[in-house]
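SAMPLE LOG
Freezer: B-3
Tube label: C17
Construct: single chain, 140 aa
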Amino acid sequence: MESNRGSPSWTLVESILAGSEAIVALGVSLAEMSEDEDTVVLRMTMRPGLTRDGTIYHGGPVASLIDIAGDMVVAVRAGGGVPTISLRVDYLRPCTGPWLRATARLRRYGRTISVSDVDVHDDKGRLCAVGRGTYSSMVG
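STRUCTURE (predicted):
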């Protein structure tokens, strides 16, 4: 995937991530963004408080990563962070490793409601969880 590093959209996403204490506490950062800005990849590094036993991520932080990634891919189009309307998460295997990557794809951007699909992979490239988020298309 071509990276859009340095673009206004890249700066917007980094600003939203840095401006949230919860996101900073989770250690979520922007890793990649497609040239067309319809795909955003976030990374979450394992740290104390995010695991069940020191080796497996707790489901809560994984769901949060999915929600944040889904929000960011909509935020690029909307021009700022957007409220979550609904979120569905399916855990496919234990999420392990030093970091996770969440790849969010914009499924639909509508006038009032948008949808994104998110895949979460571990450091070995294994699909650990999938999610779908529905968001308001209006910044807020």
